[in-house]
Amino acid sequence: MTDTPFGFETLQVHAGARPDPATGARQTPIYQSTAFVFRDADHAAALFNLQEVGYIYSRLTNPTVAVLQERIATLEGGQGAVCCSSGHAAQIMALFPLMGPGLNIVASSRLYGGTITQFSQTIKRFGWSCTFVDFDDLDAVKAAIDDNTRAVFCESIANPGGYITDLDAIAAIANDAQIPLIVDNTSASPYLCRPIEHGATLVVHSTTKYMTGNGTVTGGAIVDSGNFNWTASGKFPSLSEPEPAYHGLKFHETFGPLAFTFHSIAIGLRDLGMTMNPQGAHYTLMGLETLSLRMDKHVANAMEVAQWLENDPRIEKVTYAGLPSSPYASRVPQICPKGAGALFTFAIKGGYEACVKLVDSVELFSHVANLGDARSLIIHSASTTHRQLTPEQQEAAGAAPNVVRVSIGTENAADIIADLDQALAKATA
Length: 429
Ligand SMILES: *Cc1c(COP(=O)(O)O)cnc(C)c1O
Description:
The chain is an alpha/beta fold and about 425 residues long. The chain has 2 domains: about 10-285, Type I PLP-dependent aspartate aminotransferase-like (Major domain) (Aspartate Aminotransferase, domain 2), CATH 3.40.640.10; about 290-425, Aspartate Aminotransferase, domain 1. The protein is built from 17 helices and 14 strands. The protein has helices at about 10-15, 40-50, 65-75, 85-95, 115-120, 140-145, 165-175, 190, 235-240, 250-255, 260-270, 280-290, 290-310, 330-335, 350-360, 390-395, 415-425, and strands spanning about 80-85, 105-110, 130-135, 150-155, 155-160, 165, 180-185, 200-205, 220-225, 315-320, 345-350, 365, 375-380, 405. Strand 2, helix 5 (about 115-120) and strand 3 (about 130-135) form a beta-alpha-beta unit. It is globular, with a radius of gyration of 22 Å. Pyridoxal-5'-phosphate (PLP) binds near residues 88, 112, 155, 187 and 208.
């Protein structure tokens, strides 16, 4: 072994895994077991006291899931990671240790449609609230933060429009307010963007998407940078003060940079129960092995398709940040130097009706509410994922009625273009 740190392509195959100590199995086994036998009563007590790290019960920890957690933490450059049952679970799990009744978050108005619903409606039931602002307006972001704000939330490459957030500028604002920046890095993946290097405290993922990459399982992850001082401001008592839900343990004092990770397992998974199962972790581990190879192909195909669309007279507008015409093109080298992802929208002349006809006419594309699959996917956001939003929210989120969203797959680029060509002919006839 050399002292040179391994490259991304090596880590995506190896990080967190070692041959199975019991059998020598080279691939990570699926430990399909609910519970794990204690060596003796002292061992059991040490595990429950978090004095020894080990396995108790798979709602909390599982050896297959643990390999995935370590791999994702490594790929994101974080100290620790916790996996859970979906991307939406990851968002709740990320906020849970920080929040309480009466507290709020400040989030970008450009987010996955389901996240806007979760933040504008569902979290109110916990007494939490969210203020949405345009993250290109840095003064508005600053102004939205008040004494009760406990996090700033955005996506690195924002769904559905492929908008790219100036993470460094937003991180500086969060830092001044002594609150963490949480970045949803789902659409970029750690291969294209590493939010922690731009100042993010926590990174959340829907592993359902590019990380798994084959459309088989839902999953989520929260990665902790380990860089945030949970004690300094007095705003995060669940991490800095004796935690009544864990017999008065002080997580930050006890676990230092792993405080958030331990809290998320010992309290978050224990009491919210949004656990990833070992079979699901297995599929995601399989997917991660080829993440960089897939992302390079996704990006190359997206670029070709976006360029073709931009030059087509049936198209009004293409939002892909990889195009020089995009207002966000200048952020690509800084935020996602290996490419602007493979998710973007385009507006068709002919509006809502033409969009609906287009999704009904594609043959190679699948009309589904998903993204980040090896298959090319298409959806008309205004009539589906963003249907619950007001017209103003749809517009702000980049999901206007005349817009379709595509997630460009890893197929042959000419085949993808040919399918769009024939479907556009029908849609605009
Ligand atoms: C899909 C998605 C989510 C939600 O993830 P699920 O796994 O479907 O719960 C959150 N954020 C982004 C950016 C997504 O694409």
